[in-house]
């Protein structure tokens, strides 16, 4: 059992991440971004500089949008992702371990972690549900 736990803790982020995840840009309208999240049934999106430069600069979640509805009017056509995103999100690299990603997610109380390459460009996304599925599969063996 101990060998299996060691094996589990060494799983690389690249083995469990969602590759080439959807993302948005800071200039995108909140209404467009929210519609994309609802249609794709996803809780949040990484925010990159622009379509050509995929360096991660933030993250936007449905929760961010819901909370902002109470604080300001999102009906304004001028509300953009930049207005509501969380800048400088926590990130991991593809060679980081599952345990490292899980440590960040639990300690920071987050459900998704962008995975970046050496240029800080988005290449993947680690989701809490994927980690839970991986753990479940491990215990079923």
Oligomer: single chain
The percent range for helix content is 40-55%
Q: Please compute the radius of gyration using only Cα atoms.
A: 16 Å
CATH classification class? Alpha Beta
> What order do the strands of the largest sheet run in, or round the barrel if closed?
1-7-6-5
List unreliable stretches of 5+ residues: none
Portion of residues in beta strands equals 15-25%
CATH architecture: Roll
SSE succession: HHEHEEHHEEHEEH
Entry keywords:
3-stranded antiparallel sheet, 4-stranded mixed sheet, CBS-domain, alpha+beta, 7 helices, single chain, elongated
Walkthrough of the structure:
With 141 residues, the protein is α+β, with helices and mostly antiparallel strands. The protein has a single domain, classed as CBS-domain, CATH 3.10.580. Helices cover 43% and strands 20% of the residues. It contains seven helices and seven strands. It has helices spanning 2-9, 13-16, 30-40, 62-71, 81-84, 98-108, 128-140, and strands at residues 18-19, 44-48, 56-61, 86-87, 92-93, 112-116, 122-127. It has a four-stranded mixed beta sheet. Strands 2-3-4 form a three-stranded antiparallel beta sheet. A hairpin with a 5-residue loop joins strand 6 (112-116) and strand 7.
């Amino acid at each position: 059992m101990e060998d299996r736990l060691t094996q589990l803790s060494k799983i690389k982020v690249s083995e469990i991440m969602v590759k080439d995840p959807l993302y948005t840009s800071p200039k995108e309208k909140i209404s467009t971004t929210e519609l994309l999240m609802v249609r794709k049934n996803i809780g949040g999106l990484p925010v990159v500089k622009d379509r050509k430069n995929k360096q991660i600069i933030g993250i936007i979640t449905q929760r961010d949008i819901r909370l902002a509805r109470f604080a300001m009017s999102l009906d304004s056509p001028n509300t953009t992702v930049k207005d509501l995103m969380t800048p400088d999100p926590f990130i991991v690299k593809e060679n980081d371990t599952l345990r490292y990603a899980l440590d960040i997610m639990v300690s920071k109380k987050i459900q998704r972690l962008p995975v970046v390459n050496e240029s800080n460009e988005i290449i993947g996304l680690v989701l809490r549900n994927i980690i839970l599925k991986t753990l479940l599969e491990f215990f079923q063996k």
